[in-house]
């Protein structure tokens, strides 16, 4: 079976940037933006401010914004990101990076109605398929919950060159997950919404 379709959406794409660039873009949008997609590293450790911070510093991770000129990370605390992203009337924030569930819950606590994120590490190919399918489904008129179901099913439907399943939706860090695969552990995506928290 061969199916072709074309869905047009209006989008602004920024490659690289910093948390400050994000804030400026949202301000310039004057609340015209309804959805926000971040694709990149979601579990970048914040640098320690002092040698005595130890384990607490290592536990703090954030989104990895990359300076377009220097190619270096520009980081800010997850609480600051949550404040920035939640103050511009976005109805959906999609955090397509590893281990972004903590930030997702901070966004929900600040009133963002719907957040898609990853509870675990995420395989690159699986995360690309998840985002592409999700936004295609939303553009076609599906609800966020329906689109999330479509997207997780699309990941589970991915196949190897021999036709077998490529991924399972499981935690790559669990003992035995994806061991001897395929199927490999794709990670565990979440949809955090006003009335529920849905996993794949």
Which residues sit in consecutive blocks of at least 5 with pLDDT less than 50?
1-6
Structural class call reads: alpha/beta
Would you count the extended β strands for me? 11
Helix percentage: 25-40%
Q: What amount of the residues lies in strands?
A: 15-25%
Q: Can you give the mean pLDDT?
A: 88
Radius of gyration: 18 Å
**Largest beta-sheet details:** 5 strands, mixed
Shape: globular
- The total domain count is 2
Number of helices: 6
Major β-sheet strand ordering: 1-6-7-10-11
N-to-C series of helices and strands: HEEHEEEHEHEHHEEEE
What is the first-to-last residue Cα distance?
A: 26 Å
Characterization of the model:
The protein is of the alpha/beta class and 200 residues long. It folds into two domains: 19-91, no CATH class; 119-200, no CATH class. The strands form four sheets. It has a five-stranded mixed β-sheet, sandwiched between helices. Strands 2-3 form a two-stranded antiparallel sheet. Strands 4-5 form a two-stranded antiparallel sheet. Helices cover 32% and strands 18% of the residues.
């Amino acid at each position: 079976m061969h199916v072709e379709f074309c869905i047009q959406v209006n989008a602004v794409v920024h490659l690289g940037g910093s948390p400050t660039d994000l804030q400026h873009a949202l301000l310039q949008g004057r609340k015209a933006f309804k959805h926000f997609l971040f694709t990149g590293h979601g579990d970048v450790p914040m640098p320690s401010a002092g040698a005595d911070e130890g384990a607490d510093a290592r536990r703090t991770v954030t989104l990895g914004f990359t300076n377009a000129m220097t190619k270096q990370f520009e980081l800010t605390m997850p609480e600051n990101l949550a404040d920035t992203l939640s103050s511009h009337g976005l109805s959906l924030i999609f955090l397509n990076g590893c281990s972004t569930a903590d930030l997702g819950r901070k966004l929900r606590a600040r009133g963002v109605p719907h957040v898609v994120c990853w509870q675990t590490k995420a395989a690159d190919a699986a995360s690309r398929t998840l985002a592409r399918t999700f936004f295609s489904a939303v553009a076609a008129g599906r609800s966020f919950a329906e689109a999330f179901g479509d997207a997780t099913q699309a990941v589970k439907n991915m196949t190897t060159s021999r036709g077998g399943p490529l991924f399972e939706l499981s935690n790559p860090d669990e003992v035995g997950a994806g061991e001897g695969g395929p199927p490999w552990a794709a990670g565990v995506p979440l949809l955090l919404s006003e009335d529920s928290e849905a996993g794949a």
